[in-house]
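Design job #97: recover the sequence.
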């Protein structure tokens, strides 16, 4: 009996040894090493600066002159870009009122600039009148109508007259004032074809889509050769004056003022003169 008990104890010890060995992991525990995030490095080329861009919103009649001015200004100020935005002064004014990112505004009349000034949307201390223009009556080059004055526009044969929209386009406002002062507006209003800006009115006449049109003298000068002819200068009591100012919300006021100074300075005035504007100097 004692012998059988010893054998039972030995067998029990063997079973316990086998069970413990089975519970051991065949693969040793792995040690995890934390990974340190790599911070991206932005390459910076020594001596290279990010260009500064200013946006200049200008009346459509300034297209040619300001395009030349911007190119010259950029040449003299490396690292500065001038983004030009042309349109009717009224439309440009409304863009600024709506929060458009504009640095400099050049209008074809005082009215639009006054509206911004009254709302403190321009820096009134920067505002300057920088040039003048004049209003002219033009007709298509191949016109067979006998139009020698604004009075002739009352002829029933004259059916379409191109003008800028008097509410938003300064040339339209000047035209309406001139015709009202001449006692002709009530007779001609129904014949008028409004354009979005003075350049569109010029195109109407160039293409012969209207019998006559009112534009600035500078725009008549820029017409495609052989497309229009000037009938007469048009008298208007309100001077055709162009003001310019730095926009209050500009993030580039120093450069904006520098461009304004270029426009009102000798170089800018000489460029304006080349395009037929009446300069301040």
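Job complete. Output follows.
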């Amino acid at each position: 009996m004692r012998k059988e008990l010893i054998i039972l104890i030995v067998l029990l010890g063997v079973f316990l040894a086998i069970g413990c060995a089975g519970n051991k992991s065949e693969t040793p525990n792995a040690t995890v090493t934390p990974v340190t995030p790599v911070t991206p490095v932005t390459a910076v080329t020594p001596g290279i600066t990010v260009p500064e861009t200013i946006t200049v919103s200008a009346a459509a009649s300034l297209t040619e002159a300001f395009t030349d001015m911007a190119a010259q200004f950029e040449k003299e100020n490396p690292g500065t870009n001038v983004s030009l935005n042309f349109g009717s002064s009224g439309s440009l004014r409304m863009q600024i009122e709506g929060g458009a990112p504009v640095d400099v505004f050049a209008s074809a009349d005082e009215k639009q600039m006054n509206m911004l000034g009254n709302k403190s949307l321009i820096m009134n201390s920067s505002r300057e009148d920088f040039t003048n223009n004049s209003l002219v009556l033009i007709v298509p080059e191949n016109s067979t109508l006998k139009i020698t004055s604004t009075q002739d526009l009352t002829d029933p044969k004259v059916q379409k007259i191109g003008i800028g929209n008097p509410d938003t386009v300064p040339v339209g406002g000047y035209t309406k004032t001139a015709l009202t002062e001449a006692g002709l507006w009530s007779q001609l209003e129904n014949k008028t074809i409004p354009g979005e800006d003075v350049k569109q009115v010029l195109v109407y006449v160039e293409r012969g889509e209207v019998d006559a049109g009112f534009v600035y003298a500078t725009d008549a000068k820029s017409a495609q050769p052989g497309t229009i002819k000037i009938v007469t200068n048009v008298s208007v009591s309100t001077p055709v004056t162009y003001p310019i100012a730095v926009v209050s919300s500009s993030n580039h006021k120093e450069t904006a003022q520098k461009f304004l100074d270029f426009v009102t300075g000798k170089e800018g005035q000489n460029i304006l003169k080349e395009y037929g504007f009446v300069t301040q100097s």
